[in-house]
Amino acid sequence: MLYTTIQQAAPALRDAMTAARHILVTSHINPDGDAVGSSIGLTRILRAMGCRVTMVLPTELPSLAVVLPDAPEVGVYSQGASLPADVDLVVLVDTGSISRIEPIFSAERAYLAQRPLLVIDHHATNSGEGFLNLVMTEAAATCEILGLLAQAWNQAIDAETATALLMGLVTDTQSFQTSHTSPRTLRVAADLLALGGRLNEVMRSMMYGKPFAHAKALGMAIERMHDEGDIIWTEFTQAMQQGTGADDEAGDEITAYLSRVATAKAYVLFKERRDGTVKISMRSQPGIDVGSVAHSLGGGGHREAAGATLQLGLDEARDLVLSTLRVALA
Ligand code: 5GP
Ligand code: MN
């Protein structure tokens, strides 16, 4: 069943979750603020409803998660570790497809196949793989959906839950700057702030909590920016990462900076991963769809923010992505 409104979904989702004995909440690889905020926020809401919940994320949490006291409780999956056997409901948040929870997806195929899946998400590329899916593509963040869901359930939200949900709202809207920031997004955020959510701490950890190495990496990436008219792109190579000591998260900084230049329609960061693959992050001007380009390359995301992982070297990835993008923009 695929729901697209809170009103229709709220009773069915509550029935499924309160009937479960043990719920596993998870989200995508390289979890961002919305993945972490929605995992922790939903877990806290469900526990307040009396549910037993375990959180496991596929890979390490982003550094901004330090402002959430529950972050240390989130299990980070390690190969060979087993997931709780008595789980009888898997809830996937902020993720378009269960295949995006690698390495869990490959290692735990049988485990996942044996358990019902419930999905709460806002990605346009979500294919509705669960037996119950709430996919609201107009929502700015999965955390926006959860704020509305708690209201529909008449479930009180405490200050820590509000802070977790604010993290998703702030990160996915880049501090309420993106075009999908709606009156409803701001109303949900205002409600969460009124409930004691620590908005300013979330903002500070996102905007002003960067390591020095990120600034150095950003400088190098800006130096290498290419202006091709409709497309502006740059790269973040392994050599740059090793030379500066910047980690993967510096890529978010670079992507955000690229899209500040007004003259282009689309922006691409090519990030060389340690395993030799290339992760691309694309952004676009309002109304320009890079989500379908990412989808055609095996990735996904939103119209104006999307990505993919390519099993190609940096040069090949650049040729493929830029030529695909030029066709799409023409
Ligand atoms: P970012 O560029 O910030 O990593 O991701 C932007 C958006 O694209 C996010 O919504 C993210 O979930 C999605 N995205 C990024 N990389 C991938 C990918 O490899 N596969 C899919 N399906 N979506 C991705
Ligand atoms: Mn999201």
What does this structure look like?
This protein has helices at 6-19, 33-48, 104-107, 109-113, 142-152, 159-172, 183-194, 199-207, 212-223, 238-244, 250-258, 291-296, 314-329, and strands spanning 2-3, 23-26, 53-57, 75-76, 89-93, 117-121, 132-135, 226-228, 231-236, 266-272, 278-284, 300-301, 305-310. By secondary structure, the protein is an alpha/beta fold. It folds into 2 domains: 2-206, inorganic pyrophosphatase (n-terminal core); 212-329, Roll (Diaminopimelate Epimerase, Chain A, domain 1). The protein has a 7-stranded parallel sheet, with helices on one face. Strand 10 (266-272) and strand 11 form a beta hairpin. It starts with a strand and ends with a helix. The model has no long low-confidence stretch (mean pLDDT 96). The chain binds guanosine-5'-monophosphate and manganese (II) ion (MN). Manganese (II) ion is lined by residues 34, 94, 122, 141-142, 172. The site of manganese (II) ion (MN) has 6 residues, from loops. It comes from Herpetosiphon geysericola.
